[in-house]
Amino acid sequence: MTEHTLEPGEPVTIIGAGAIGMFLGAALARAGHPLTVCGGRPFDHIDITDGDTIEHFPVRHTATPAEAGPHRLVIVAVKAHHTPDVAAWLDVVATDESIVLVAQNGIEHRERVAPYVGDAAVVPAIVYVPVDRTAPGQAVVHRPADRDLTLAADPAAEAVTARLTAGGVRVENAADFTTAAWRKVLTNMGSNPITTLTGRRTEVIRDPGIERYALRLLNEVATVARAEGADIGERVPVETIAWLQNLPDGASTSMLHDRLAGRRLEHDALTGAILRAAARNRLAVPHVESLHAVLNALSDGQGSMS
């Protein structure tokens, strides 16, 4: 059995050096890990702005998988629907001894990545920290009140937690990761699709009609979550909507950004995953089903992937 440990100084590979990939990479560089970035537009350092602090970390950019080589810790931070597009990178950088940290939306992190990483340990990450990518290699961090990341409470996840914590990331290791993941799905479902379809930011959820629709939607999702083993109380949908309604004016979502940029949407990691879970449990979810169909049509019209 592989021993899940990560030593200071071990190189780290980043597949998907967008906002979250840069945030995690900067933390690991701060903890003493050299960074390799796979593909995309080349840059030679990460500039990360967190409050009044601006830090600079060198990176090694690789244009092809052959240049990257295997690594003990691999970060996958591409959008969920782009996972198959990075299969060639994963085939090279992840070995059976690797830990693969998957920072994506949804609940199917392991299912998406497992076909490409052999016996590597896959660590799903629930990301809370808002990060804006301002240019290749540049990102601005907006810290939430309590935590940046939630990982499971298992040896591989705890090895990653130790290194991220050393780099200043506030990580929670959840014994009940299923519940934590589904709570995040409820938050995403109450915000991402609605802002995307209305073309408005999260204050749209304060509209009484939208609030009623969002509650019906989240009640369906909560029913599926419970069937999947999550501890989601009856009040959680109402509490989730209230939390979203109290976000500052101008708060946005990643899915809305993708729509405005003409990119394909990451909705299958949310609505598609919920439909698959509902089917496993023989549950009817008409609101989720119709929302998924509309998002499919919208995404199909968005043009080529970016």
What does this structure look like?
The longest helix is centred in the last third of the chain and has 20 residues, at 208-227. With 306 residues, the chain is α/β, with parallel strands linked by helices. It contains twelve helices and eleven strands. The protein has an eleven-stranded mixed β-sheet with strand order 8-9-3-4-2-1-5-6-7-10-11.
Keywords:
single chain, 306 residues, alpha/beta, Rossmann fold, N-(1-d-carboxylethyl)-l-norvaline Dehydrogenase, domain 2, 2 domains, 11-stranded mixed β-sheet, 40% helix, 21% strand
Q: What is the C-alpha radius of gyration, as a whole number of Å?
A: 19 Å
CATH topology tier name of the largest domain: Rossmann fold
Shape: globular
Q: Which second-level CATH architecture of the largest domain applies?
A: 3-Layer(aba) Sandwich
By CATH's scheme, which homologous superfamily of the largest domain applies?
NAD(P)-binding Rossmann-like Domain
Structural class: alpha/beta
> Mean pLDDT, as a whole number?
93
Strand content: 15-25%
The separation of the N and C termini measures 39 Å
Helix content: 25-40%
The CATH class of the largest domain, by name, is Alpha Beta
Side-by-side strand order of the widest sheet = 8-9-3-4-2-1-5-6-7-10-11
Strand tally, please? 11
Helix and strand element order:
EHEEEHEHEHEEEEHEHHHHHHH
Main sheet attributes: strand count, strand direction, barrel closure: 11 strands, mixed
- pLDDT < 50 runs, ≥5 residues: none
